Amino acid sequence: MRLRRSAPADLGFVTTLERHPDNRDLIGQWSDEEHLAAIAGANGREHWIIERDGRPAGYLIAFDCRRGGAGTYVKRILVKDKERGTGRAALGAFVEKAFARGTDHIWLIVRDSNARAQAVYTSLGFARFDPADRRYDDAAERPADGCFRMRLARP
After folding, report:
1. What is the pLDDT of residue 106?
2. Residues 6 or more apart from 95 whose CB is under 8 A from it?
3. Is the pTM of this model over 0.90?
């Protein structure tokens, strides 16, 4: 498994995976323009392709929220073939990259009903996180109903 920066040519793979019926109800849906802006790095966005055996296997989107004191936010991680460890390996690799470049914590939002994702995040050291201030809402977004934040601090 390896992570590489997404390119505009990856848009077809990304949107096909995101809009697949198996995924549509589990994650938010972005327009092509939103993906292309993240691919271009607009507003501190990062867009990564997850490769397995040299082929696209998923993608990850993150927001650099350090300016607002809110670390790095993993907006989305989605893999094509579930239950193979690809998502866990990709998130672990991203965590290493983010900590190496100086972020002090990484956070994400997960649905109450997504036990598979919660188990993966917990296995990587993430824990439930309910901040009292609004900087996370202001830096990225507030969890929707039925969702909560998880956070991993740099060791």
Report:
1. 98
2. 106, 124, 152
3. yes
